[in-house]
Design goal:
Elements (H helix, E strand, L loop, with lengths): L1 H23 L10 H5 L14 H14 L3 H28 L2 H12 L2 H6 L6 H20 L3 H14 L10 H11 L10 H15 L3 H6 L10 H12 L2 H4 L11 H34 L1 H19 L6 H4 L1 H9 L1 H7 L7 H23 L6 H9 L8 E5 L3 H14 L4 E4 L7 H10 L3 E5 H11 L3 E5 L8 H4 L8 E7 L9 H11 L12 E7 L6 E5 L4 E6 L2 E7 L14 E5 L2 E6 L2 E7 L5 E7 L8 E6 L1
Parallel strand pairs: 1-2, 1-3
Antiparallel strand pairs: 3-14, 4-14, 5-6, 5-12, 6-7, 8-9, 9-10, 10-11, 12-13
Helix pairs in contact: 1-4, 1-5, 3-4, 4-5, 4-7, 4-18, 5-17, 5-18, 5-19, 7-8, 8-10, 9-15, 14-15, 14-17, 14-18, 15-17, 20-21
Amino acid sequence: MTRRRDDLLAAAVVGIAAFVLYHATLLPDVDLGDTPSFQARLGIALLTPRDGYPLYTAIGTVFHWIAGGTPAHALNLASALEGALACALIVLVGVELSGSVSAAAAAALLFATSYTFWSQAIIAEVYALHLLFVALTLLLALRWARQPTMWRLTLLFAVYALGFGNHLSMILLAPGVVIYLFAAAPGGWRSMLAPRVLAVALACACAGALQYAWNLHSLWLLPDPPHGLFDALQRFWFDVTKADWRETMVLEVPRAMVSDHAAMYAFDLRQQFGWAGLLLAIAGLGRLVRTDWRHAALLFSVYLVNWAFAFSYNVGDTHVFYLPSHAIVALLAAPALAWTGAMRGRHRLAVALLFAYIAARTWRDYPALDRSGDERPTQILAALTAGLDDRHAILVTDLNWQVENGLSYFGQEVAPQIAHARLPPLILYAPALVADNATIHRDVAVTEQARDELSRAYGPLFASLRDPRVAVPTLSDAIRDLPDGSRYVFCVLKPTRDLLLDWQDIGRSLAAEAGGQPVQVPDGDYIAIAGRRGQPPAVVIGSNRPFRRSFDLGGVSVEVRMDSWLAADTIRRMGFGHVVAAHHHTLIVERGVSFVAFDTSGQPMRTAYASNIFAPQPRYLIFRK
């Protein structure tokens, strides 16, 4: 009983520490990307198969009822709590693997402070809850092997099935768990195929699948309901598995990109744990092979399958799909540290060194991962909708999908007085829409891409004029009146294919910062130029690989971090890089152009973006000629 209390106490301490860390760096409100689509679903009755994630949505809705506040903040906070619980469970898994509470706690904190997991635990995303179920499944499998009762096996099956209501990638645990159950079964592997065991597994699978009854039922509430159950099941399976785009992404990494993906994975592992963490994981796997090969087979199988899926997944946010394999890497640190217990009392020293290593990395990464002051999404959406209300105007958009998702939440929760719709469903009857609104003296405002699409579709039928209520300064305009001597960092990252860099404006901006002298921009996918206004740049960096550089700028310590891999990343919810000045999060660097001027404390005086989703967007008013 004392040992069990120690385990639970360590898990509680690690969970509380992780929650405090995540809460301190929590995104305060709405984000762009997938996040606002989750935030907008809280409390809704209609959850389509394409929406998916019924368990995540249900938990988030209940949490919102309890915590209150805006749906965006409530769901961000739920992620922080789910991430903290996942870390607490990893402590218990580590104890099962190593027998050492301190080693397990260190392994859990190594994962809690890893870059990608930390970044996902402070926003509304499904990955914190997914890792909670991954850790709980591993814990129940290990405890069943220690005491193989039917009750424990049933609980394992039930939790595993429940996890599918959050994320379908739970299927990637199946090979490792099945191998482990067959290897650890006291009656031999054939006992796992007994009718009773299979019946319990099937019952749990069916019960878990019932979570998606919500999504299936919603099909009959749509304008085009299915024609019978068979048609409904076909639509459901197509949408819930997203078969239309997964066929082009799963196992579809081009052969020419394989070496680049390998380099990206090496970068990603160092970003999470550093070389020390990786060496510990290798030592831990070696320790498990010697002490209990079944534990080694479980962890290695789970790692390998999740790694192989993420490595071969041709998607714009590959880094988040490596998270389960990162959890295994961190867990392997526990048996590595426990190994030192037999080395003449060096166990405490080894654990203390790992805690010091984690503290140092946390201190270094904290400013870059602190999103507590990130109000950029709200600001860009407020600027896009400035001056609009449904009595006097409607807004028709064709935007980058990340901004569109943010606008859906913003228009639903923050500014419900704004009438807005996406252009593609409306384009066939756009002339009637414009004419009807003109009849009731209501403007039709459109985004730039929507205006261009209407022009291509209808030629001279529509005329447009710039909406003066939306200010869209160029980059050079945005930074023109900065005082001489201002410290600045100017970053240019290769943009996505739908956005182009305005090199003339970039040149004007750099020349203005350099006192009117032209600045030679280096080649590279990652470019950083820093200095003081009115003087030639002090730092000019160009690279085709991510980098971190620290330097002094007028007595202020500055670190420029490129924390992405542009060949693989089209989406980075935490940003593609960071500028940290005076240990303060001064700038989140996005693809395209990112600029910041800052004071001696690292506080931004001026921030500007171009050629990315945070750049100011023009708005137009259209009317029929």
